[in-house]
Design a protein that fits this description.
tt1808, chain A, alpha+beta, six-stranded mixed sheet, Rossmann fold, 28 strands, about 950 residues
Length: about 950
Amino acid sequence: MDITTQKRNAKQFIKNWQNRGHEKQDSQSFWLQLLRDVLGVEEPEQFIKFEKKVQLSHESFIDGYIDQTHVMIEQKGSNKDLDKPIRQSSGELLTPFQQAQRYANNLPYSERPRWIVTCNFIEFRVYDMEHPNSEPVRIELKDLEKNYYQLEFLVDKSNEHLEKEKQVSLNAGELVGKIYDELLKQYKDPNNEHSQKSINQLCVRIVFCLYAEDAGIFGKRNMFHDYLEQFDVRQMRQALIKLFKVLDTKEEDRDPYLADDDPKLAEFPYVNGGMFSNEDIEIPSFTDELRSLLLSKASDEFDWSEISPTIFGAVFESTLNPETRRQGGMHYTSVENIHKVIDPLFLDDLKNELNEIKKTKQLATLKKKARKFQEKLANLTFFDPACGSGNFLTETYLQLRKLENEAIKLIYPNPSLDVGQAKDIIKVSIQQFYGIEINDFAVSVAKTALWIAESQMLEETKDIFYADWDFLPLKTYTHIHEGNALTMNWNDVIPNYACHYVMGNPPFSGARIMNLQQKTDLKKACGNVKGIGNLDYVCGWYFKSANYIQDTDTKVCFVSTNSITQGEQVPILWKNLVNNYSITINFAYRTFIWNSETKDKAHVHVVIIEFDTKSASKKIIYDESSRPKAVKEIDGYLLEAPNIFIENTTECVSVNAPEARSGNQPIDDGNYLFDKKEYLEFVAKEPRSKKYFKRWVGAREFIHRTYRYCLWLGFAKPEDLRKMPLVLNRIKAVKQFRLNSKRKSTQRIADIPTHFQVETITRSNYLIMPLTSSQRRRYVPIGFMTPEYLASNLVTVIPDASLYDFGIITSNMFMSWMRAIGGRLKSDYRITKNNVYNNFPWPTPTDKQKAKIEKTAQAILDARALYPNSSLADLYDPLTMPKELLKAHQDNDRAVMEAYGLSVKETTESDAVAHLFKMYEKLTKSNN
């Protein structure tokens, strides 16, 4: 967000919050708006946690907590003085800061805040806990427009070491991109397949050499630079060809006179590992600009030894064409998000095991346990069947080696006396890591990233022993295989009985955007699965994995688009996996945004799911704020519930539910739809047509109250039509459009061009329910329409609906059901008739309960009517929702929940969904 926008938003924020500030009602809205509008956090609901539990002598709650920046917030109402003590439930008198300090002292050490913020809507006080005795920074709301930058610590994720590695890696990626672009200009035929593969391989080799000279792998610094500097621009190409040949030749096999001919070239060691073995790669001529870029910018002025191989692998791969990357479904992963997979999958347990070993008092026993732990690390195997640039494998290798170094310190308490050879001391190897990747360049990048990680960790082990071990020649080989994971036999890469963990983030191509090859691959991976056309591409990896891990203890954990846990994909995917492969989910992250380290960040809404065939006794669900919750079972919707699969149905499962219909679908190529200006112009030219126009309402028009107009001719008499030449032209255009369609069903309705393909023409009032709605809204706006309005196919219509019907489907019971089983469009709710509405279990209220719901439903409409100039988008925005409307909805929620036999106070949303699932199961069994 630019400075101008921030200042403008800060000014509006001040205006919104002047003379407001109720501690309970307004706190969350205040902080969400501040983070989103002023500080530029795209999904503040996922960034900040509210009501974080902390155990004092009693259970208490922290008003706000930001994990990523270690910020604790203590919020008070605008009527509270931040300097004055407030009596606590325990009877103590504490200032807001003292209250926050007490919370901080009772948190685990790793969760204690760096910053404490107290606020009363009028003033912010910022306490830096690195300097606990210093005076707080004071920022008044009225001055926020000029002082907003003082709150940027709330979103500044800087961690000095990690941030430095990240920035170095991003800068390195920029350099690679520039080198790539300059090289590409020099190829005779840059679009030739051999040239494309050659430039990718050449970039990998150059990067390895740049890293090797800075990290000391070649024996001394600047060897690559000093060797190339001897040659002018016309000799650079041949110089590289000779260098690559030498790097691939053992010293005993080299020309004995090489040191006489070119002593600098002769100093380079043998690399091995296959990186320089292909002599057929095409290397173009250099230019002065390219030579300067390589020697000055990339070598002289940049230190490659400080890159993070995990991040750099992804950034390096981003030199590929962005369109190629999008089509392949590749999205690159932050270290933080990688740990959301590997920490609960295995790393947390390994760390805990090592910590227990460290508690051993007797030295001999300690060393024995540490050796056994090291052997365990060295025997674990990891497989990423869509490994891309290898960042999951690389980060896992780094973490295992760090644990191994900790174990080595226990095994060798006197390292200077115990020193041996690296091969005798280091057991963890990159040979434990396996991958499949379809892109040849990514395969090379993944191998290089693992080699760089290996070299960096060797340096850390050398520091323990003060040893001088050589990294080259490469003695370990990476098991990264080029190929199509959905058509390969994974046992050819690593036998399933030898694999401990399968993990990664397979391609994110949706069911509707896959190309023909991807659809073919998916069918081969999934077999004869009914409804396969509705599955995302990633589902192929789920079916392949489920088959691969049969009769093993192997665990699988994938990052996937959240759509595979929503709507119609759940019964297609998870019903098959559960019933045919005995799959159980052991831990899962519900929907969150998957961030990357590349400049063109891919914002994808994802879930993380770990599964196996053994069913772990301990199961965990991480919510949208990454808070873990221990549960007994996890279903395909990532709910704490048994596996019940909600399948599309054309009829309501509840006999007392009013019938819903799809809205009108013209199939008219836009000939019957008009905006207001077009409508007025048309009617002015064709006055007879006015009586055939109706207002047209879809989801957007309904929510924003910006209606269009539709020419509805279904009831028009032929003699009337013949008197309207402009209308006849529209009819002819619709008929021709339908005839030209490739779809048989569209061609058939060309014979009745005055009618729509789908017609829902009501003669009385009806309820309208949008097919999509923002996930920010607690309640999806639903409302009544009169027959003068024609509903589009982007809404669901409930004809002749009553106030009671409205009360039920606008309640938190229906909203909870919708959030649980409905699909998503990106992150927005998708509320389909056949999936969400028809499967919703309706209550059987008493007459008294029904009358109460009718009364609370009318109160919602009355509350809306108080704001005639506000759209439903305004009224249902959580930041601007009027208190009268919120209270009306809350009253309606209570009335509806009573009809279900539930209590608002004692029922969470998960409880409500579980109750509805039980009702659904009972209803569907009785219907069958």
